[in-house]
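=== Per-residue structure ===
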Amino acid sequence: MAELPTGTVTFLFTDIEGSTQLLRDLGEGYASVWKEHQLIIREALASAGGAEVGTEGDSFFAAFSSAPGAVRAAVAAQRGLAAHAWPAGSTVRVRMGLHTGDGVLSGSDYVGMDVHRAARIASAAHGGQLIVSEATRALIEHSLPAGAHLRDLGKHRLKDILQPEHLYDLVIDGLPAEFPPPRTLESRPNNLPLQLTSFVGREDQIAEIQELLRQVRLVTLTGPGGTGKTRLALQVAAETVRDYTDGAFFVDLSPVTDPGLVPAVIARALGVAEVAGVPILETLKTQLQHKELLLVVDNFEQVTAAGGVVEDLVSTAPKLKVLITSRMVLSLRGEHEYGVPPLEPPDPKSIADLDTLNRSEAVRLFTERALAIQPRFRLTSENAQAVAEITARLDGLPLAIELAATRVKVLTPQQMLPRLERSLSLLVSGGRTLPERQRTLRGAIAWSYELLDKPEQSLFRRLSVFSGGWTLEAAGAVAEPELLDLEALEGLSALVDKSLVRSIDPAAGFPRFAMLETIRQFGQEALLTEGEHDRTRRRHGEYFLNLARQAELQLTGEEQAAWLEQCERELDNLRAALRWAIDAGEADLGQEAAGALWRFWQQHGHLTEGRGWLNELLAMPSGQGRTAARAKALTGAGGIAWWQIDHDGAGAFYGEALAIERELGEPTRIAEALYNQAFVVGASGDIDRSADLLEESLDLFRAAEVEHGVARALAMLVIRDAQASDWPSAIARLEEVVAIWRRLGDRLQLAFDLIWLAFACGRAGRPREARSAALEALGLFRDGDRVGVPGPGLPGGVGGTPPGSIEVVGRGGILAGSDRRRSAARLRGHA
């Protein structure tokens, strides 16, 4: 075999598909089949100048200095396997993957992301299939072996790979050419987060957890922070997602401290919308009842009181399996604990050679992460002893090893070791009540923290106040980097380089940053120790509550979709900010912000959570004053109660809001409160009283020259006209409404009220005008991109179709059925 090439290298991975079943079928005869398969592969490698890197079980790993040579070897191997006479009734199908990248050697093995990429490409193939990456395709497309051609498979997400990979399969004449879609993350529904780094080792643990999940339905991975529970759970999910018809979904509980929010957070991860009047847990149980799905629930130790939620889901959904990570066992019915061990470090006293050292998972992790920071890093005979001692001193804890590896940018392992030992010794002397491994991890974080410049330390502490991540703009506003003589982007970049902060969503339009929960907890403790906690939490709270207030008008405007998504991204920070307002007694700010957020909670299906926040804020002793902030919160609570079909509750909230607004005396706000109350009264069937409230609202809107308010009140008054069959009055009102929306340029409301006008004209015996209005509305609906999106036309300015029962039907004109019962139903539904 050739020597292992370096530089630009094409990697080939192969393994036998269904080898376990083949072993069961052949029994002792499998050994000879396995050897014959090896001979065929090795002959193909040798003929094309390939270097065998290693074998494990029925898999091969080979490297080539030439991409065309690698393809020739793979094609020859597939042809040889297909032509071989295997024992009667057996077929050996081998899947293969090729990728070209940097060949970085560490001892007698390759390290780096390109090796992982090649392995993941091979794992995406089916037996008898040869898949190649875009990088390899570019080098081979003009020099393919005779009888072979490439077929485009499109872009796919691979396990452990951040960016989607463009894949191709190499179709070989005379061999099977039709295969199912590649075994990538797209093969089943999932929301598994993209990983920025490769997954190293843990093959035995993955296999054990997979086997456990085949036997039981609830598994909890336990261990202290930093042992890699989350990453292991995600890897198991990625490896097994194809086993679940309805996919695998990840639920991050790290920002959640209220057990009552757990059902809503799970629902959000699964894309399950809240149903009005139904507890979200009941909706979840209904949705999952017949699903075959793996649910990965992370960081459960913070909300152990919510364990009953998982028990309910598992008992209701017989095909649901749940994989939990927690620092402690949860003692749930049917729970099976799996203690996640650290990576096994080498014994520093008995290092035989570099190859032996490289087989240590702890050393491989250190080397991989060091390479990501410093591409010139290599494990050598000079630094091997120090690397072994570092990984052993850190107890094989993955997070601690990753933090240490980032320092190779400025320190050699030999320089790193004594500094690390001093930090850990100091920690042990001051923290003897902590478990040993927890002291080790805290020591590793503390060591990384102490190596920061003083301004960087301050920035790190302040950033730990964020929950669920943050933007560059938010970091600048909350952490006050300018007072540290530090530019926000410069400081964040330094913390990312040192692995204390992670960049997330780098490919999205809104790049964000975050901390691992263990690191964040260390930062918050340091924030308290330095006396900066209260000030930083206040700045965080004020920033996000002000963001909520800014969002209020946007949530019904042209930028509605973008602002809804921004609120969803910042939901954990908004929760933390509302909690701060309650803890700090800042009732006015909290009530105003919650009142501004109700449209977001309603439109993104967080009704129960929103009502909970509003109830708590309205109950605050410091929030009982007759203030504009309380009135706004009451209006928000009324809007949510309306959407929960709790009209009594909505009436009580809107009634108190109206009373406060009358006391405060601001005409426009009184008009809005009257308008909201009119809806609840109308839904109860008292159309006359509803109309009285709307007439008073209309007068105030006219006096204040608030045109959109005038239009909304007029449109609602049409209900009374329709009940009385007073179509001339209805038409007159609607013509004024349509004229206002034309002036304001609100095409959505114009379209809705043109439908009303068409309906009224049809009933008044004016078919030409009815048809004209209906066709104009139809054109607006066809041209618009916000049809059906709630706008400013229902209680609290939610908006939507006028509360009639109307259909516009092409040439057939207008069909209408508008009795009291159907009008009330449409009112309740805010169509």
